[in-house]
Amino acid sequence: MGCSSCSTGKDGQPRGCKNNGTCGTDGCNKLTVFDWLSNMSLPNGQKPFDCVEVRFKNSRKEFFRNPEGIPLAIGDVVATQAKSGHDVGIITLTGELVKVQMKRKKVDATDQELPKIYRKASQRDIDIWQKCRDKEPEIQKRSREIAISLNLEMKLSDVEFQGDGSKATFYYTAEDRVDFRQLIKDMAKAFSIRIEMRQIGYRQEAQRLGGIGSCGRELCCSTWLHDFRSVSTSSARYQQLALNPQKLAGQCGKLKCCLNYELDMYLDALNGFPGQDTKLHTEKGVAFCQKSDIFKETLWFSYKNDPSNWHALSKERVQEIIEKNKKKESVASLEQYVVETITEEKMVFENVVGQDSLNRFDRPKHKKKKRNNNKKRRRNKQNASKNN
User: Fold this and answer.
1) Is 307 exposed, middle or buried (0-12, 13-18, 19+ CB in 10 A)?
2) What is the pTM for the complete model shown?
3) Cα separations in angstroms, 306 against 230, 299, 301
4) CA distances (Å), origin 311, targets 161, 166, 279, 380
5) Which of 36, 65, 96, 285 has its CA 20 to 30 A from that of 108?
6) Residue (of 49, 57, 64) closest to 21 by Cα position
7) How far is 4 from 14, CA to CA, in rounded Å?
8) Are strands 194-199 and 167-173 parallel, antiparallel or unpaired?
C-alpha cells in the first residue's frame, strides 16, 4: 500500500511523502481500490468509460463525467464541477471498474446530470487548494470556540474547504437536533466564507478522521470498509464474549464492526448445538448448562445442588440425554457421560533448519569461571607457600 516516496530513508527511518492522505500515486489513501483491469486492453471498437472516481479530503469520494475525454490516470489532480465554483480532488479510479463501483453504490452511470471534470489542475489551482488546507486546523479550533460560547451541544469534528476556497463544509456530530443558525452567522462573519453544516454519525466521524484500533491496525472503516452494518450485542453473545462495553466498543463509541466478521460461522456452528438454557434430568438431580465451546463441541453442566462442580460432556452425549428425557427415560448421572480428558503431549522442537543454539552467548561465561577458579588456586598456593 506504500508508494515509492514513502520508502525507507537513512538509518532505517521511514521517509514519508508528507502529503497527509493525498498521496500522488493513491498508494497511501483511504478506501483505495486496486485496479486489476489496468493491464488489460479494451476490445476493438469499444470506447473507454467516460466516468472517473475522485477522492477529496479523507474518505469522501464522488463520481464525475469526463465529457471532453481528457487523458486521466490514478493520482492526477483535477478541477471538478461544484455547486458554485470548482473543487479540487485526486483521481482514484478510472476505466471499467468505475462502472462496477457506481453500480455497487447505486449511482446511475447514464445520468447526464453527473458533475463534470473541468481540467487537470494547474499549479495555481494546487497552490490555492493547499493554502486552504493549511487553514483548516485553525478554523476548526476557532469554530469550536464559537460553538462553545453559544452553548451548543455539538461536536465539530472536521472542516473541509472547497478547492477554490469559496466555501467550507463543517462536519459535526450531535445527539439531538441543533439550532445552528446563529453559529453560521458568526462563522461567516469571522471567516468571510460561505458555510455549509453537515451532520454525520459517530461511525462516519471515525471513518473520516481515522485512527488505530485495539488490534493495532488502522480502523477498518477508514481503510477498506465502505458500508456500515448494524451491530448488536447479540453478536457478542453468540460468540460467547464478555459483555464489557469498554472492550466491545470501538473508537466511535459504538460496537466494533469486526463483531460481524465471524458471526455467520458461529451461527452455522450453533445450529446443531444445544442451547444455553438446556436442562438435563438425572437421578441425582437436574443439571444446568454453565458453559459451551463450539470449537471443541463440548458443554459443561453442573447439578443444581452442586453448582461449583462442572462436568464436561460432548455435544453428541448431551443430545442423547435430551432424547432420553423427551421419552421420559431417566439417566443415572452425568458422570457416566463425562468426556475423558486427554493430556496433551509436550511438543519437542528440533533444530531442522540448522540454526545456532540459543545459549551460544552463554559459552564465554564458563571460560571466565574457569579463569576465576585458576586465579583462586594460584592465590591459595601462594598463601600456602608463604605460611610454610
Assistant:
1) exposed
2) 0.71
3) 41, 17, 10
4) 64, 72, 13, 67
5) 36
6) 57
7) 11
8) parallel
CA 256/CA 270 separation, integer angstroms: 22
| Cα gap 101→91, rounded to integer Å | 14
Q: What is the CA radius of gyration of the chain?
A: 34
Rounded distance, CA 76 to CA 335, Å? 72
102-159 tens-digit pLDDT: 998 899 988 888 999 999 999 999 999 999 999 999 999 999 999 999 999 999 999 9
Helix or strand or coil: residue 363? helix
Q: Where are the beta strands (DSSP E) in 166-262?
A: 167-173, 194-199
Question: Each residue of 198-257: pLDDT tens digit?
Answer: 999 999 999 888 889 988 998 998 888 888 888 998 899 888 888 888 889 998 999 999
Q: Give the pairing of strands 86-93 and 117-120.
A: unpaired
Specify the 3-state DSSP secondary structure of 281: strand
Q: Of all helices (H) and strands (E), which one includes residue 61?
A: strand 61-65
Q: Would you state the cell numbers that stand for residue 321, as one nine-digit string?
A: 440425554
Instruction: Please report how many Cα atoms fall inside a 13 Å half-sphere around the Cα of residue 343, on the Cβ side.
Output: 2
Can you say whether the dihedral through the CA atoms of 202, 204, 206, 209 is positive or negative?
negative
Q: What is the pLDDT of residue 346?
A: 55
What confidence tens digit (pLDDT) does each residue in 159-199 have? Answer: 999 999 999 999 999 988 899 899 999 999 999 999 999 99
Query: Under DSSP, is residue 342 helix (H, G, I), strand (E, B) or coil?
Result: coil
C-alpha cell at 31: 478506501
Show the cell assigned to 350.
Answer: 528440533
Distance CA 313, CA 340 (A): 9
Query: In the block, which residue shows the cell 471567516?
Result: 191
